[in-house]
Specification:
Elements lengths: L5 E4 L11 E4 L10 E7 L8 E2 L4 E6 L4 E5 L2 E5 L3 E5 L5 E4 L6 E8 L6 E2 L13 E4 L16 E3 L10 E7 L4 E7 L3 E6 L4 E5 L2 E5 L3 E5 L5 E4 L6 E8 L12 E3 L2
Antiparallel strand pairs: 1-19, 2-3, 3-10, 4-11, 5-8, 5-10, 6-7, 6-9, 8-12, 13-14, 14-21, 15-20, 15-22, 16-19, 16-21, 17-18, 17-20
């Protein structure tokens, strides 16, 4: 693995006929501040109920809308939606459809894996969570220090361990090469393949893949196609306030 970046597609994880598959993505990188898991749920199946000790987790459905059970509730996460669940809240991923569904789970601080949670009669009827539909929110910019239309999601998701943004690259748009002093940064193209720049290299990233870089690696994104591309961008540990890109963000060009 190149120590400047790591990339792996959640869609490359094969579906099993009757078994939920968990696969940790880009697991052997040396700069891990975030955990990434592909979760493939077969038709009519569901994951085990689980939670984390300290890991805040985002869930992103990659094959259209999906559902996650939280306590007695069942929450629908729309296509291009993001669900945040705090550590202690029990949850399970549900698939009521006729085809397998792949989810991307993004968490910080990273844990080795979730803890199984048995069902309880006194299950919380009002669990804590936040869900955002990217398609229903207006983008900001471009403007000063913001070269492309952007959607800041850290505050709407009540995220505390992750900085979360979606940035829309129109045809010809670029996010300039930049670095973060302490923050691992990950990029996920949501609606089609995208292209990342790392120093002098340009890399194609398929939709639903995780592309992650350590803090000191110069990175940027570019749209050389004919259609807009939305990128989910996540960083940890979070720096600055929820409306800032980061106190150690530095543009290099």
């Amino acid at each position: 693995m190149d120590e400047q970046y790591a990339v792996e597609s959640a869609r490359a994880v094969d579906a099993a006929e009757s078994v939920v598959r968990w696969h940790e993505l880009v697991a052997d990188r040396s700069w891990a501040e975030i955990r990434f898991d592909a979760v493939v749920v077969p038709a009519g199946g569901s994951s085990r109920r689980h939670r984390y000790a300290t890991q805040e987790t985002l869930y992103v459905p990659l094959d259209g809308p999906g559902q996650i059970g939280l306590g007695e509730a069942r929450v629908t996460v729309p296509q291009h939606g993001v669900l945040r669940v705090p550590p202690a809240t029990p949850r399970r991923i549900v698939n009521t459809g006729a085809e397998s569904r792949t989810w991307l789970a993004i968490g910080a601080p990273p844990e080795s894996g979730p803890d199984a949670v048995p069902a309880r009669a006194d299950e919380d009827s009002d669990p804590e969570f936040a869900v955002v539909d990217v398609g229903d929110r207006p983008f900001e910019g471009p403007g000063e220090n913001n070269s492309v239309p952007s959607l800041r999601l850290t505050r709407p998701l009540d995220a505390t361990e992750l900085k979360v943004n979606v940035r829309r690259l129109r045809p010809g748009d670029e996010i300039p090469l930049h670095v973060h002093g302490t923050q691992e940064e990950a990029f996920v193209p949501l609606d089609g393949p995208g292209r990342m720049r790392v120093a002098d290299e340009e890399i194609s990233v398929p939709a639903g893949a995780v592309f992650t870089v350590p803090p000191s690696t110069p990175r940027g994104a570019v749209n050389r196609g004919d259609e807009p591309r939305d990128w989910l961008m996540v960083g940890a540990p979070p720096t600055g306030g929820p409306e800032q890109w980061g106190v150690d963000y530095e543009i290099l060009e």
